[in-house]
Every structure is written in C-alpha cells, then in structure tokens.
Amino acid sequence: MAATLDVNGKAVTVQADPATPLLWVLRDELGLTGTKFGCGVAQCGACTVHVDGQPIRSCVTPIEGLAGVKITTIEGLGGAHPLQQAWVKHDVPQCGYCQSGQIMSAAALIEQNKAPSDEQIDEAMSGNICRCGTYQRIRAAIKDAAGLAPTPAAVMGAPHADIDEAITAATSRGAGR
Amino acid sequence: MNGPLSKLIAQDGVSRRDVVVGATLVGGALLVGCSPAEIMSAGSKVEVGAFGPFIKIAADGAVTVISKHVEFGQGNHAGLAAIVAEELDADWTRVRVEQAPANAKLYANGGMGVQLTGGSSAISNSWDQLRKAGAATRAMFVQAAAAKWSVPAAEIAVKDSVLSHKSGKTAGFGELLADAAKITPPASPALKDPKTFTLIGTDRVRRKDSQAKSDGTARFTQDVRLPDMLTAMVAHPPRFGGKVKSFDAAEAKKVPGVVDVFEIPTGVAVVAQNTYAARMGRDALKLEWNEDKAEKRSSSTIASSFRDIAAGKGPTDLKWEGFDSKGDAAVIANAKGAQVFEATYEFPYLAHATMEPMNCVAAVDGNKVKLTFGSQGQTLDQMNAARIVGTLPGSVEIETLFAGGSFGRRATFQSDYAAECVHIAKKIGKGRPVKLVWTREDDQRAGYFRPLVVHAVKISLDKDGYPAAWRHRIVSQSIMKGSPMGGKGPDQTAIEGTAGSPYLKATPIVDAQLACPEVGVPVLWWRSVGATHTAFVMEHTIDQLARKAGKDPVEYRRALYAKAGADRHLAALNLAVEKAGPTAAAGWTRGVAVHESFGSVVAQIAEVKLVEGQPRVGRVVTAIDCGVAISPDQIAAQMEGGTCYGLSAALFGEITLTDGAVDQTNFDSYRVLRMNEAPTVETHIVPSGSAPSGVGEPGTPVIAPAVANAMLAATSKATARLPFTATV
Fold first, then answer.
1. CATH class, B221-293+358-437 region
2. Which residue of B has its CA nearest to A151?
3. DSSP letters of B256-283?
4. What Å distances lie between residue B326 and B230, B502, B508, B596, CA to CA?
5. Which residues, including other chains, have CB under 8 Å from residue A55's CB and lie 6 or more apart?
6. Which has the closest alpha carbon to B605: B635, B627, B573?
7. Which residue from A31, A132, A158 is facing B405, i.e. has the nearest CB?
8. With an 8 Å Cβ cutoff, is B236 touching chain A?
9. Is B16 exposed, middle or buried, given 0-12, 13-18 or 19+ CB atoms closer than 10 A?
10. Contact, B152 vs B166, CB < 8 A?
C-alpha cells in the first residue's frame, strides 16, 4: 500500500503496510539508516526522530497518521548543526549507536528551550539510553551548543531537590570541568 | 604466543578434514610446515603495500592506519593511529583509520595468537608493533629524501608529514612516495625516546569517528544494505538447551514479504524482504519445543546451590582448585572469636545489553563466505563459519564494521549469532546476502551472561587489626572450561582480582579456592570479567576489616599496600585522595576503592547520598595508572563510560531465570543507568613511562565497591548482594 511522507523536506512515496513502524520505513525503504533500532518498544530512544519538531520514538509510530506532518531524521540536521559540532568538539560518541537519537532529543530540547537547566536536560534526555555511558559529555555538549556554562561537577547524579545545594557546594569547592 | 591457537587447531579448530579441504583449495605444499597463524590465514588474500600491513600512504601524502582491532566505543582507533603517527611524524589532522581484513597471520592479537579484540589489549599488544611500523616507514622516507637531495639522512627532519633539510629543501610524503616505496624497510628502526613524543599524551589525540557518529553516516551492521539482500529473524527456544520439536510455517508464509521459513540448529528462521516482514512472519509461527535437555532451574535455585557449595555443603565430587594459597589452612579453618570476620557475597547474571542488538550479514556461495559485521574475534568467526560450510578459515572473508557496543558480548567461542547467520545464508545460497536481525528480546534472552557468582570469605585479624589468615571460596560457572582457550588450573577469568590481590600478598596465611559447577546457562566475559565481582569482594571486605580494626579505610589500604609492595596501587590511591580534596560536600558520604585489572590500577572516591535507601552517586574522582597515556581524553572517556557501566549493574543489573526462562526481556525490565542517574567522573592519570596497559575495562569494577563503602560509612550496613536495589 502506498503512503506519502514528508521526510527531511522531501515528499517520498513508499509501499508499506500502514501499521509498519516509521523506523523500518526510514531504514529499509528509504535507506535513512542514521536512525537506529535499539529496543522496539520506546524504551531506549535510539530511534528518535522529529514529527513537526517534537521528538518521537519511530519504532512504535506506525506510518498511518503521518501524512501531512514534517518528519526530520538525523540526516535532516545536515551534519553541521550546532549540536553536531558540539558532539564532535567534546568527542561525545563512543560506540556511537545511540547518538543519532541523543542528538535528535537534544535538538528538540534546545529548539524549544534556549537555556535548559540541568533538570530540564535530565527530563528531555533520560528517555535516551547510552550503554557506553557518555552522559557527562552529552550534557556538556548540549550546554556548549546552547552557549551555557558547564555544569558544576557535583550536580550530575544529584537528586533534583539537591541540585541547588550541590551547585553551591561544588562552586564553593571550585570543582567543575 | 601461539599456545591458545595451537589448542584451537588441535581440539576442534581446523580438523584434519579442513586441512585436506584446504590443501585442495590452496595447494597442498603451502600448508606443510606453516605456523598456526598461516594455516588460519590460508586462502585469504590481503594486499600488503610497501609500508607493511598497518600503513598506507596516498599520493597526496594522507596517511591511513589499518586497525586490526574493532572499534566499538573504546577509542582504540584513535590510540592505534596516534602510535603510528607519532613515530612517523605524520600530520595528525590528515591521518585516517581503516579496519583491517580478517587475517590471523598479519593481524593476530600479539597476546592471543588469533585476531581478536578483548582483554583491554588493543593498545598494549600493538604498542611495539605499531611504533616499529611507524618508525620504519619514517626511515624509508628519510632515506628516500637523503638520496634525492644527496644529503646525510641524519640531517633530515620530519614534522607533520613534511621532510626538510637545513639547506632549505622540503618535501611532503606524497612527493617522496614513489621513492620511499622502493626502499627496503629497516628491520629494527630506531624508536623515539618517549620524552620526545609530540602527539602521544596530548589532548590532540582525539577520536577520528566523532563526526560520522554524530551525523548518522557511521556504518554499523544494522545499516548494511546490499543488492538483493534478505533479512532474517529466528525463533529461539525459550530455555537454554531447548530444541525445535515441530513448527507450522503456514501463517508465517502468508505474511507479505516473507520469502522462506526453515529450521536451523538454533531455531526456526524466517527470511523476508525486510525487517518488518521478518518480524511479522516470526510472530505468525506456530512452534513446539523439545525441552528434555533444557536448563529448567530458576536463578534463585542456582544461587542457593552456589551458596551451599561456598559453605562447604556442596556435592563431594565437585572439584576445588586452589590459588594464591600459602601457610597452614587449618589455622583459618579453626579460627574463632572477635577477631574473625566472615561474609558471603552474591552476584547475579548480567546481560551486556549493547545498544545495537546482535546481528550479522552473511553471504555463502558454495564454499565461499563473506561476513559483513562488527566482528570482535575475526579468527574465531572465520573458523566457526568455515566449519559450517566446509572450507578453510582463511577463505572466510570478513569486513569488520563499527559495532554498537560489545562489552565482551561479540567474542564468543561459538560465534553464536554469526554462526546462526551463516547457517541461514548457506541455506539461501548463491552468494545472496542475508542480514540476521535480533530483537532486543532475542538479545536479552540469548544468555552469554556474566556468570552468577558467590564468594565466601573468612578472615582473622592480627593484634594490629590487619589480616593474619584469609580463607576465600569462589563459586562460579567457568567461562573458559571446555573452550579451546581453556588452560590448566583454575579458570583465571573467575579468580582474577582475588588472585593476585595485594591484600592476599600482605596476608601470611591464605587458603583460596575456586569451584565451577555446571549450569546450562551460557556465560561469557562481561566488561572487566572476573573483576566485576572480585573487585567488589576484595574492596568491600577491606573496608569492613578496616572498620573492625577501627582504622581509616585509606590508611588501612596504605598499610597493606606497603606490606605487599603494591606501589602502583598506593600511587593511584594517593592521587585520587589528593584530587578529591579533604572532605565531601555537605550531605554526601565518600567511599573509596582501588583495583588492578588488565595491567592498570584504578582508584576511585565516590560521593554518595542515600535517597529513600537507594544510593545516588554524584562526584567520582578517578585516578588511573595505565602506563604511557596515549590519549588522555579517551582515557577519561573510558573512565566515565566504564564507571557508568559498572554503576548501572551495581544499581539495577540483574538477570533472573524462572524455571530456566529469562525474566528480563527489554529495558523496561532490565533497567540500565540513564542520564539523570549518571555521576560526574573526574579523571586523573598517574604519570608513567611504562608500556601502555588496559583502559577499556579497568574503569568498570571499582565504582560498585566504592559506592558500597560509602553506604557502609553512612549507614554502618554492608552490602552482601548486588544490585543494591536487591539488598537495601
């Protein structure tokens, strides 16, 4: 069955069952393999793309109902998006498999919030798993891309209610990177 | 060292029949008198250029370093390239990295005799080899320039891929390429004095793959698209050791896009035009399993049997193997009273849970095999694929891609998922490529877990509060037993870290033994292997002993390191203590741990706060002695990542079995560390002039005991079982 989608600003027609998750249409039909398969149940975020600017998990989003919306994938960011530059500057990736999804979640975040707090970064990014544990650099790269000061060392991993206290402690200790 | 490889061949690697096949393939004489690596590589065609198997230089002077090791996050590609670039005096900005083909003769891991990335050895086993390769190539260019300019070679300088002479003559690698390529490489080129390194050890040594991994262009197995390629999924038995009894493919074959359904040794394969069709087809299968020989025990049953064994109540025919033992074991067996410490620790099965589930692309045409995937143990994968199709390992071609994490999972003696893919591609035949895709659930249920392990210790203290006698029992499934690489004596992967511990060295009487019961659950190395449990037991025990002795845990360690002559432990500990500063932030409690693994010593001081009984980890100060630090930034990255990996397991990691079936099938039930739970890791490197040692794994095992020790300090309660969620 034919469906027409708007992917990265181009209208594309694909032959696929309407129940097919967008992920598999992007990867198998359109060859846009930057968007990754990680869990298939919206638990890991590796498949994150934007639908009208909102981050969604393409592994659980059937293509039916996506007519007329704008779909953006990692390929649609162009390679030199401020976040992608920051990712390279901080050498964020290790294995790299989750990073497309991480960047898409981060791109939606800073599009909507030019100066996210640590708590807001946590909220936006905790749906994206990185098994290599690049979280510290992801946070640094997001802040860098958004033109924000680095996070004091003791803040990450701190319970949210303690963040103010942790910032005070870290600042007074002069810690940070 | 070819020991393990010889064993591979002797036991089940290249059988006599394979050699005969090989003889007809490549000419009989070729195999006679060859080294094992040559036999493994027979039939393989690799073109080696003028500068050897590790270096290619293009007409424009750009340098390509060929990596024999797979890159799945460790940053080894950057480090390996930097070793070459340093000795070659190449322009680092114009150095790229290419993945080597599979060929044990050219690309064996120097410590293993087979081409395999593991044991945090990529840099250490390549150090001399790549320094020499870079230096030899540099010498060839220098000699070419000397001849061309008619000046003494000693007067030529090389910097950033440009040769120069005081007369003002200069030439780039590109200009001298043809001349240099004609020169015979020196057998023993002069290596630099490490004090003169200009690239190694600087922050210029950064990853070469960050752009490709940030714009979606990095190519993983999952991304392979080949003409006419099919995609397969396999229905596996729900319990380890199960087999197909019967299946009905009628409904599966009705799914649009499904091409074929057939049985293979590991289950029922559904082959389709695309991934979604393969998935829908598999879901439509009707299956019956024969579980007569399946492992049907629950993990709780296995754990309690291990506890019995550790307590001396196991089967009498179970073999105990000693290590590090000395003195009169009866002293500790009979010890009683207030100066005796006893504890039992339990560690669950753990899944590696790489972000990219296991997958492989294979094409089989007669006895020709091409594999395209993130191969970690190319020689093993060649041998297993060759055995399936009846050819020589060397005629199995492997294009190694980036892998989306491994943490040990992709190096199995059986090449489990790659072999499965070869079976399917063999049935499809005609050289048609087949991509095998495992779902997260397939991956999670497939086993090859970190073994379930129980430790029991009994320690008596001397009058000063230090260990006088130490009894240690470890009960674990063996990873190595029965494998081609299993040696004599106790399985080192089960005892490393307890074996060799400076605390045992500092103790006059030691009675340490390992028992390895048989369980039908496939087990495997998991980032830092034995240290995943031994570091916890040794380091958490030491804090409890220090407490019992009324001593500060840092001072207690210092005294034991002095007794054991463990200078590197002491230096790493001292650096971490110094960098951490005098006190934790208000409300946070510190815990310390130090452990040596893969030749490197890591000390960590973790700041922990208990929130509703659960540890939250904030700042983690890390000190590492890993010999010469090639890329300080990537060493830091591995400490950050290794810490997260270890903390994830310590906080949440646990695979349980109910009647033999794995309970945790995806990230909803197998919880892993997320951004809001991640600590901030500060990394400090102990200055060293020694050859490089491991970095990828040593950052993993230290965080769990550091956190447990912080919790002990905060609550006076010890941790007897991981993950913390299971005990608190």
1. alpha beta
2. B680
3. TTEEEEEEETTEEEEEESSHHHHHHHHH
4. 60, 14, 7, 22
5. A48, A49, A104, A105, A108, A124
6. B573
7. A132
8. no
9. exposed
10. no
SS3 content of chain B, % helix, strand, coil (to 5): 35, 25, 40
Chain segment B291-350, per-residue pLDDT in tens:
999 999 999 999 999 999 999 999 999 999 999 999 999 999 999 998 999 999 999 999
B670 touches chain A (CB under 8 A): no
CATH of domain B3-196: 3.30.365.10
CB pair distance less than 8 Å for B215 and A84 = yes
Tokens of A164: 């103010």
Is the backbone peptide bond immediately before B723 cis, with ω within 30 degrees of 0? yes
Q: How far apart are CA B162 and CA B575, in angstroms?
A: 40
Average pLDDT over residues A137-163: 72
Q: Mean pLDDT in chain B?
A: 94
Q: Check CB contact under 8 Å for B405 and A170.
A: no
How many Å apart are CA B592 and CA B326, to the nearest integer? 28
B440 min Cα distance to partner chain A (Å)? 5
Whether residue B276 and residue A21 make contact (CB cut-off 8 A), yes or no, is yes
Query: Which candidate from A24, A126, A136 shows the least CB-CB separation from B276?
Result: A24
Euclidean distance between CA atoms B80 and A125, whole angstroms? 33
Q: Is the Cβ pair A27, B275 closer than 8 Å?
A: yes
| pTM, 2 dp | 0.94
Question: What tokens appear for A99 in the block?
Answer: 């990073």
CB contact under 8 A, A158 and B618: yes
Burial B538-574 (b: 16+ CB within 10 A, else e): bbbbbbbbbbebebebbebbbbbbebbebebbbbbbb
Check whether B92 has a pLDDT greater than 50. yes
Alpha helices in B451-524 (DSSP H): 492-495, 502-505
- ipTM, two decimals: 0.94
Q: What is the pLDDT of residues B131-146, one digit of tens each?
A: 999 999 999 999 999 9
B485 in Cβ contact with B4 (< 8 Å): yes
Residue B465 · residue B308 · CB < 8 Å? no
Flag whether residue A62 sits within 8 Å of chain B, measured between CB atoms: no
* CB atoms inside a 10 Å sphere around CB B53: 19
Q: Distance between CA atoms of B176 and B49, rounded to whole angstroms?
A: 15
* Band of pLDDT at residue B34, cut at 50, 70 and 90: low
- CA B236 to centroid of chain Cα atoms: 26
Residue B652: CB atoms within 10 A of its CB come to 18
**Domain B3-196 shares a fold with domain B301-349+449-726:** yes
Identify the structural domains of chain A with CATH numbers, from first to last: 1-77 (3.10.20.30), 78-177 (1.10.150.120)
Rg of chain B's alpha carbons, rounded to an integer?
27
Cα–Cα distance between A33 and B275 in angstroms, integer?
13
Q: Do B207 and A33 touch (CB under 8 A)?
A: no
B53-70 pLDDT, tens per residue?
Answer: 999 999 999 999 999 999
**Nearest chain A Cα distance for residue B623, angstroms:** 16
- Distance from C-alpha of B605 to C-alpha of B617, rounded to nearest angstrom: 11
Instruction: Please state the rounded mean pLDDT for residues B491-508.
Output: 98
B648 close to B673: Cβ distance less than 8 angstroms? yes
Of B124, B135, B54, the C-alpha closest to B95 is B54
Structure tokens at B687: 């200055």
Q: Chain B partners of A82 at a C-beta cutoff of 8 Å?
A: none
CATH dotted code for B301-349+449-726: 3.30.365.10
- Residues 497-556 in B contacting A (C-alpha not used; CB under 8 Å): none
pLDDT tier at B154, thresholds 50, 70, 90: very high
Q: Residue ranges per domain, chain B? A: 3-196, 221-293+358-437, 301-349+449-726
